[in-house]
Every structure is written in C-alpha cells, then in structure tokens.
Amino acid sequence: MLNKLIELTENNLKDIQKAFDDYQNNYFTARSPEFFCLELNGEAGELANNEKKQWKGREIEHSAFEDEAADVMIALMNYSNARKIDLAAALTRKLQKIESKRIEMLKEGKNF
Ligand SMILES: [Mg+2]
C-alpha cells in the first residue's frame, strides 16, 4: 500500500507541482516564499475556522470545507514552488520515515 502511494507520488506530483508553477508564473504576480507561507497559514486558518464553527454546532456547507481545502492545496503548491521544494521527493522521504517509525512502534506494541 505504501509502495503504491510512493509510486503515485513520484509519478504524478512532480508534474502537478510544475503545472502549478507554470500557471502561477504566467498569470499572476511573482511573490516571495514568505508571502505564500503566510497565505498557506491564512488558508489553513480559514479551514480550521469552519471546523470550529461546525464543532460548536453551526451548520457549514460541505462546499465551504472543499473550498478552503483547495485554497490550502494551491497555497502549498505556490509556497513549495517559491521555496524550491521538491514536494514529490520530500513527501516520499517523509512517508518512508513515518513508515519506519510506525513499524518500530508496532514492534514495541505501541499504536502510532
Ligand atoms: Mg480561503
């Protein structure tokens, strides 16, 4: 299962990240990594705010969660491109690290 996830990541994420970069560079003002980092956190905050409202009993349209999750994804892509982060490579490394930790904890009888 993890191998499939890594294979999909390595085969597709690089192209997706590049397409976001091309789109951003061709149609929008160039921004710094710091700008996109703040934008990413702002969008994550908007998503969290929707969760907080729903948790407290307000009804939130599912489309509002989708909208903010999309904003987070776009901001993460823009941040990663501005910061020259290879997300496919970084994600693969992180998934392998998490899996190693999970197996280690499983051997110790702990849940991860
Ligand atoms: Mg938003």
CATH topology: Helix Hairpins
What's the CATH superfamily, by name? MazG-like
Shape: flat
Oligomer: single chain
- How far the N terminus sits from the C terminus, by CA atoms, comes to 17 Å
Describe this structure in words.
The protein is mostly helical and 112 residues long. The protein has a single domain, classed as MazG-like (Helix Hairpins, Orthogonal Bundle). The chain has 4 helices and no strands. Helix 1 runs antiparallel to helix 4. The longest helix has 26 residues. It is flat. The two termini are 17 Å apart. The structure holds magnesium ion. Magnesium ion binds next to helix 2 and helix 3.
Topology:
Elements: H1 2-27, H2 33-55, H3 62-82, H4 87-107
The chain binds magnesium ion.
Which key features would you list for this structure?
112 residues; mainly alpha; Helix Hairpins; flat; binds magnesium ion
Summarize the structure.
With 112 residues, this protein is mostly helical. The protein has helices at 2-27, 33-55, 62-82, 87-107.
